[in-house]
């Protein structure tokens, strides 16, 4: 019995002496490293902004199950024609860089971004070269198609408001599937990978109800 008690005592001491892996974060999902994990401009924060910057920098604390819905209801941020500065797309790239590069997070694993396009922002849903309501091929409609595709390739989901689609059909921006003799439909004018939502504003409220944080750039 004494031998048994001694063996149990030795085992308990060994268990308490084991390293506390649960507190170390070693086996947690990605994105738990000290910030910054990486550098956006390949320079340390002190190098990029000046001595002492690292100590003054607050890094995000929630790095898992982060969900964000971004509203895009404008097309352009400059008054020139044609538009050369798209609304919000640069902000979305900055969000991705901060999550992926600075904080080491992974899209689909640690975070999700949904973008709702409506009103003038709905033009970003369209192919740059396609057909108008008269069935005539037009170009220069959406010079930011490539930027949208790049964001899609990085895991961002885009949703186009069907109320805005109806308005585009009425004003001739898009063909009307029911009456267009040329066979060009509104859906056929969308960038590949673009999805619909029945109404932009109600979908934003729905995303929020599902735990997405609302962002208006």
Keyword list:
single chain; about 220 residues; Hypothetical Protein Ychn, Chain: A; five-stranded parallel beta sheet; about 35% helix
Unreliable stretches covering 5 or more consecutive residues: 10-32
CATH topology category name: Hypothetical Protein Ychn, Chain: A
If you average the pLDDT, what whole number results? 86
The CATH H-level superfamily is DsrEFH-like
Backbone structural class = alpha/beta
Distance between the termini: 72 Å
In what range is the share of β-strand residues? Answer: 5-15%
How many β-strands, per DSSP? 7
Which word captures the global form? elongated
Widest β-sheet, arrangement of strands: 6-5-2-1-7
Question: What is the gyration radius calculated from CA atoms?
Answer: 25 Å
Description:
- The chain has 217 residues and is an alpha/beta fold.
- It has helices at 2-17, 21-24, 45-49, 53-56, 89-102, 145-153, 162-170, 200-209, and strands at 66-72, 111-117, 130-131, 137-138, 157-161, 195-197, 213-215.
- The protein has a single domain, classed as Hypothetical Protein Ychn, Chain: A (3-Layer(aba) Sandwich), CATH 3.40.1260.10.
- The chain has 8 helices and 7 strands.
- It has a 5-stranded parallel beta sheet. Strands 3-4 form a two-stranded antiparallel ribbon.
- α5 links the parallel β1 (66-72) and β2 (111-117).
Topology of this protein?
Blueprint: H1 2-17, H2 21-24, H3 45-49, H4 53-56, E1 66-72, H5 89-102, E2 111-117, E3 130-131, E4 137-138, H6 145-153, E5 157-161, H7 162-170, E6 195-197, H8 200-209, E7 213-215
Parallel strand pairs: 1-2, 1-7, 2-5, 5-6
Antiparallel strand pairs: 3-4
């Amino acid at each position: 019995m004494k031998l048994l008690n001694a063996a149990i005592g030795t085992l308990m001491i060994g268990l308490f002496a084991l390293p506390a892996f649960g507190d170390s974060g070693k086996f947690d999902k990605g994105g738990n490293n000290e910030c910054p994990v990486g550098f956006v401009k390949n320079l340390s924060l002190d190098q990029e902004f000046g001595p002492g910057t690292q100590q003054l920098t607050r890094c995000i604390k929630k790095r898992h199950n982060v969900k964000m819905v971004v509203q895009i209801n404008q097309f352009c941020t400059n008054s020139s024609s044609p538009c050369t500065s798209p609304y919000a797309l640069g902000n979305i790239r900055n969000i991705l860089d901060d999550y992926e590069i600075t904080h080491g997070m992974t899209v689909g694993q640690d975070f999700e971004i949904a973008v709702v396009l409506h009103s003038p922002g709905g033009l970003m849903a369209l192919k740059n070269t396609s057909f108008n309501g008269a069935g005539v091929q037009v170009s220069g409609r959406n010079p930011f198609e490539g930027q949208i595709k790049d964001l899609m390739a990085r895991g961002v989901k885009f949703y186009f408001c069907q109320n805005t689609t109806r308005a585009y059909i009425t004003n001739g921006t898009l063909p009307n599937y029911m009456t267009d003799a040329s066979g060009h439909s509104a859906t056929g004018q969308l960038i590949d990978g673009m999805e619909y939502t029945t109404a932009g504003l109600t979908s934003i409220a729905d995303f929020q109800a599902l735990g997405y944080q609302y962002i208006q750039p």
